[in-house]
Design brief:
By secondary structure, this protein is of the alpha+beta class. The chain is built from eight helices and nine strands. It has a five-stranded antiparallel β-sheet. Helix 7 runs antiparallel to helix 8. The protein starts with 11 loop residues before the first helix and ends with a helix.
Amino acid sequence: MEFLTPQNADDIDLIHQILTEDDFKAIKKITRLPSGSRSVAYSADGYIVRFPKVNIIWQTMQREKAVIDMVYPHLIPYFASKIHKIELIDGKYPFSVSQKFYGKICDGRPENEHAVLYQNLSPIQQEKLAQDLAMFFHLMHQIDYSQLNIPEPTEAVDNWDVTTRPDFNYTDTCNALLVQGIDLDSYKIEQMNTVSALCHNDLSGSNMLLNPKKEDVLSGIIDFGNVVIMPKYLDFFPLYKINRKLAVDTLIAYNQLTTSPIVQKQIDFMALAYIGYGLAKSKDITSPYFMRLLRQFLY
């Protein structure tokens, strides 16, 4: 088993050779797509193909397929056409393949052929997106995970609750936020909703595909590799990376669906604790990333 390297990832002839050796002989046009540190992605005619960079990522992709196959029946018919089901090809160079969904990511990078900015969506599109994400969370959180054999994570999964980290210091976090005009204590609530559920855990802008040409703007949800059982309020945090308004609007719509609502201050506190923790750790050099997240609370 081999994995693509920075030296051969742009070798389209190699990618074509790999695909044609694995039952994709009709593939004609292959284009490399923007992708992260974990895999290399390509558009291959009507398919999206992802090559893991190392074996642990391949194991995560195997877990992801198992998770998608388990949760998909619980997400239809509402999301029948919006969940990226994947197949795995275990060859010399292992890869996953899924049908191509038209859509752009929404992770804050400037608008281009692959990306769209949340703030440039129309009010109707923003409202529909929040409603769809609320329904997705609701359906996921309703799944009786005790009846499913959810595989153990092959890697450490993201935990957005920084207050559980050994080096979290509440005083330092509060002080880092007070300097910016935010009183973290004012966001604390007495009774938190700590109900656990099966959560996507990474529904950030790079894991949702948006079609800005349609009112029903959400065209796909991808990357179920971080799905885990955890307190369900944590599922809302990645939306803050897109826009706080989206996180809050999604929560409002979610609370209209669930019998176990979450108070807005609870998710705001979670996000601010994350931001304050990051600012405290980078106090010598103020982090643009954490300041960008914080500005959503200042204006």
